[in-house]
Design goal:
By secondary structure, this protein is of the alpha/beta class. The protein has helices spanning 23-32, 49-62, 73-78, 89-116, 138-147, 152-157, 189-201, 218-233, 318-324, 376-379, 401-404, 428-452, and strands at 3-4, 6-8, 36-43, 66-70, 121-126, 162-166, 209-212, 235-236, 246-253, 265-275, 282-291, 294-305, 308-316, 335-344, 347-354, 366-372, 388-392. The protein is built from twelve helices and 17 strands.
């Protein structure tokens, strides 16, 4: 049986009514609402994209979904006799610009078909808009965007729901790397690795990026692909594919390393606002995320339903976001962060750096998040060596954003949440222990910063 666990929606209705009195109806409505999921499948040469597309299509068609497969624009053009390496520099630039225009038009045609369908639709894009940026300089890419009146936030964050990067077999499965039976694949091992890295880095900054590496056999790799897509879409497939990807969170001690210590990264301004709800079994929040004055907006509802945690994520327009702000909960402060996104060891990380204005308990706090299928011991080697990792805090209420945003001191607040439940959380000892765990991290960071100095990110 397929059970919805996390729901991501595209279209929203009026938000003038109060969410506090309609959360159950809203959840049931989300279950029934037709869904469209726009997925980019990218990666290095010989990474499994072609097989992955076919298997994804079969899996979701068997669930009753309509699946559209957008062809790779570069393959279509290169298959027509274009040899990119032989083009003069100005022609390479124009080719990438025309490739982006063509790609967007082809995708829009499939997106329109999905909108017109009465069925749930999965649109699989064989590479997406940001992949074109991997083949030009940063200056040339910015010129292409300007000439075509495009913005990175729009064509990356707002255009697609999820990005999945299939790591080339040239990284970790070299014996399986081949350029045979592929008319446009000419790369040797080193070039394939370089292309893979550039393709992954092109998507740094998108809020939902999954990296599927070669730490397993190929069949398991494809199963991981299907599982990570189903998980993000909110479809519970049980143990059918035997994959247990989970979100993990780590407290990071200051000071923040200088920018040069990081691999290629993108910084975003992020603001979270908690909204009023009628029940302790539900949390509702808004997220504003962007850079250089361009933002995207998400409304998230978390609640207990049928014994499991449900998340409903709804993209918003600026207008709907502004309307929902009227329902902000006065018992919570706005959470302001710099979110730094980067790749390290074939892993996509998000480092949240809390900033003013904020509650004193958030001052200087840094939390690192990612998804992994590895055990705690195995994952230790994946953690960034340039960060001073204090400890894992996954599931610890002391590092829950809901609790961190509370206006009152935790010991005095009846809203401190140990878990989503109808029961009042009046365990003063547990609340005080949570406070002590957070303070211990702050003390370590303060000691290190006094001795080392600190750096602050600037957008």
């Amino acid at each position: 049986m397929v059970v919805l666990r996390t729901i991501n929606t595209l279209n929203i209705g009026s938000h003038s009514r109060s969410w506090a009195h309609s959360e159950s109806c809203d959840y049931e409505a989300e279950q029934k609402k037709r869904k469209i999921w726009k997925l980019v499948l990218t990666g290095g040469p010989c990474g499994g994209k072609t097989t992955g597309q076919a298997r994804l299509s079969t899996f979701f068609e068997n669930l009753g979904w309509k699946v559209y497969r957008v062809p790779e624009t570069a393959t279509v053009l290169l298959g027509g006799g274009v040899n990119f390496a032989e083009l003069p520099e100005y022609a390479q630039f124009e080719f990438q610009e025309n490739l982006l225009r063509t790609m967007i038009q082809i995708e829009n045609s499939f997106f329109a078909l999905a909108e017109a369908s009465e069925r749930n639709c999965l649109v699989i894009c064989d590479r997406g808009s940001m992949d074109a940026s991997a083949f030009v300089t940063k200056k040339e890419w910015e010129e292409i965007l300007t000439r075509n009146q495009c913005d990175e936030v729009d064509i990356r964050d707002n255009r697609y729901h999820q990005i999945v990067h299939m790591v080339t077999s040239a990284k970790g499965a070299e014996e399986y790397y081949s350029i045979e039976h592929h008319a446009t694949r000419l790369e040797g091992l080193e070039e394939a690795r370089d292309r893979d890295t550039k393709a992954a880095e092109a998507w740094i900054g998108h809020p939902y990026v999954d990296i599927i590496d070669n730490d397993c056999d190929f069949e398991s790799k494809i199963n991981r692909l299907i599982s990570c897509v189903a998980l993000k879409m909110g479809i519970d497939i049980g143990d059918r594919l035997n994959v247990n990807a989970k979100k993990v969170k780590f407290a990071i001690n200051g000071p923040l390393p200088k920018d040069a210590a990081f691999p290629n990264f993108r910084d975003f301004e992020v603001a979270h606002h908690y909204l009023q709800t009628a029940s302790r079994t539900m949390q509702s929040r808004l997220r504003k995320r962007g850079r250089m004055g361009k933002f995207s907006y998400i409304h998230t509802i978390r609640k207990q339903y049928g014994g499991q945690m449900i998340e409903v994520k709804t993209p918003l327009t600026h207008r709907d976001y502004s309307h929902l702000l009227d329902q902000q909960d006065a018992l919570h402060l706005t959470v302001n962060k710099i979110r730094r996104c980067f790749m390290y060891n074939n892993q996509y990380f998000q480092l949240d750096i809390y900033k003013e204005p904020c509650h004193p308990r958030c001052r200087g706090l840094m939390l690192l998040e990612t998804y992994t299928t590895l055990s705690k011991e195995q994952f230790k080697d994946r953690l960034p060596k340039f960060l001073n990792v204090d400890k894992e805090v996954t599931g610890d209420p002391a590092f829950s954003m809901f609790n961190l945003s509370l206006r009152e001191e935790w010991i005095n607040s009846k809203k401190f949440c140990h878990r989503l439940s109808d029961d009042e959380d009046e365990d003063q000892d547990a609340t005080e222990e949570a406070h002590n765990r957070l303070e211990a991290v702050h003390r370590k960071s303060s000691f290190i910063e006094i001795n080392s100095g600190s750096a602050s990110p600037v957008i």
